[in-house]
Here is the input.
Amino acid sequence: MALDRGAQAALALHRFGLGPREGSIAAIASDPRGALRAELDRPNAGRIEDANLRSSGEVARTVHQYAIEQRARAEKQPDKPEMAPASATANPGPSVPQQFYLADVKVRYGAATGADVGFVERLVWFWSNHFCVSAEKSEVRPLCGAYEREAIRPHVLATFSAMLLAAEQHPAMLRYLDNTRSIGPDSRDGLRQKRGLNENLAREILELHTLGVRSGYSQDDVTRLAEALTGWTTIPFANASEKGGEFRFNPHAHQPGARTVIGKTYGAAGVEQGRAVLADLARHPATAKHVATKLAVHFVADDPPQALVEKLSRRFAETEGNLKELAVALIDAPESWSAPRERLKRPGEWIVGAMRLSGFMPPDVRRLMQMQVMLGEPVWWPPAPKGFPDGSAAWLEGIAQRIDIANEIARRVGETQRDATGMVDAALGPLASAETSQTVRRAESRTQALALLLMAPEFQRR
Amino acid sequence: MMFEPHAPTRRQLLLGSGVLFAWAHMPRLALAEGRDPRLLVVVLRGALDGLAAVPPVGDPDWVRLRGDHALTADGATPTLPLDNFFALNPAMPNLHRMFKAGQASIVHAAASPYRERSHFDGQDVLESGSVKPGVTGSGWLNRALETLQPARRVQGREAFAVGPITPLVVRGKAPVLSWTPPRLQPAGDDLTARLLDLYRHTDPALARALEERLGLAAIVREGSQDSAQPDPAKPGAAKPPGPGAAARVYFAMAAGAAAKFMARPDGPRIGALAFDGWDTHAAEGAANGRLAMLLGALDAALAAFETGMGDAWKETVVAMVTEFGRTARINGTAGTDHGTATVALLAGGAVKGGRVIADWPGLGDAALYEGRDLRPTTDLRAVIKGVLRDHVRVDAKALSSAVFPGSDAVEPLGGLVL
Here is the structure.
């Protein structure tokens, strides 16, 4: 299926980016693929510099202090009944941890709506979901944004092994998958406290982050990796408050000795032992296949062409997991462009696409959060370490809820200046079907026209 | 009339969960005393495993019954200490904080008078307040409200609307309002019809998904007129993205938003919420799995409610009850089956907290009810009667006749609230 340049430009924006803004399709029509590459080549691509955002260490320490103050306040309150009746109720607003969470969510929406095409942001979202943490754990929630900024974004166009290491030793991940509680049974602390291993992180590293499920590793490999990762924890707040909450290796909790993981023996080397295992996992052929498959499913098709998966897998292996080269291989492959436009956009993609097209930007980011909750994809809040599912089938039922949201966005944007034909052109260019054009043109109002356009199959699928 | 269970499709979960049902008037008597009590009843449908929520870590038989699944103080996910015998599931740090602050109590080994093990009959007994299922179509909370002298109508009529699914516990003669969280204004029929037409011509899969919704909407509409309308199975329905994740998040947000309503000086004082999904037959996951997530969601909702109530929290009681408990032993699929006694959780600034109230029956084989369940030693009605009498000032005589008919022998449990 050969597409003309205009159609290719629209496809580039929908399939690899976050959807067109006014004029985007025309702007990149001379070289759609070049526009995607240009985003990859931009200096500091993927990174977020925002003076208002805090590092994960700062967030953790502030939240810790806040919790202490809250406890103190809660203990004081029962003896001090106040006279003020309920009428004196003032809305206290979001709590300190929630404020951190919301601040990062807001900046993330800003990056997504502000991007020219959005290819790099889409890659960030992909990797962030691959190495997901979840706000479902309240102690992780305020760290979610810092996690993405620190562990994912700096590496999104660098190497897989660097991202893997950054993710697994990030305090948010160590807490989310319980590694901070995991103690080598024969370590000094293990012998003293009679506590032991927690395999959660090790299992998810093998099953979800690297090799993939049923790729040949055994329970023994899980246990050995868990042992190698004992001692990967965070600095307690009490002893060294200026670094509290940051990553540290605690040798006293580390299970001593050499061990064998996936057929290779690693000598006793403290923190380097676990790092060496991760480096080998990053290079493993099963990891290349796992990552290539997920990437192809996410960007191209529920059941991606085998040739594409093989190309990506090979490129991953050849470049030792260079993620920029992998992204280039994705957009260079003809299969990436010729697959039918069947993938249903995930809720976040679709909402951002609607924002980019319509200019909808509510002053309170919680409005957007609420929409994502309704559609089952709250930001950084996957139900399990596997992340949000990518297949279209998982999201099809939510199409009904999307109508309410499309309606809401259209109502909030109000009567736009553009006529219906102009709107369809800006959103879909040559991809618009005759039926969609007609349906939008015949809408009873411009508000309804926008809602219909946001709900059109060509705007839902890519 | 039988209580009509609803199938937990995602759409309906969203409809049922988080909808606040509240009494339309102020309670005059308590107001006259200079108090302004708030009561929220949370019905946990599906039978909460009270032993996994509040493990009796000091009971010598506890680990024997649950094996690796027994939550303990020194396990991989250590429990949160309550007293020297009971501990709290680690998924509930907020309830623990409230307990330690004297703002939460737990009644253990409690059960309604129902002794069979059917969810729907159990829920009927729990919510109707009758001794047997299927006796009445009204709920005890509504009948309790009827006995209170109504003061002025609460504010915010414009925000209230008749809800699609009214839980039995609030059904009855006393006028009840429901408040649906500030979700989005539903799209008009015309927009939907135009889209359906477009999808039918261009995208059959989207057309089918939309038709499903229209079908469901029709059921809800019929259901509100005739609550005996059964809910036909929907075989083709797509799986929700992640097991109930959206609903769980939504529930916390909705509970927080509902609280802001009840916190308002002119807002409702007595309300009810339902929270489904506690039927953990397989892979119960008390430490890290499904039950932990549900308890975490309940805990988050409780914290959101606390925050939303603001200063009114100190006059609030949140009572969390479930239709029955689960088997004392773990079953062959790492879950638990329908049982008998369980916990009732009380939280709020008005709770005389920091106590686990239990006439503990023990977990030895001979102590178990019918050799399998935690034996009930406290009648759940005594707990509810205690709260209604001492917090909301429902007349004690009415409690034994109108509210819980035939419960003369069940003395209200005193001293639950400040």
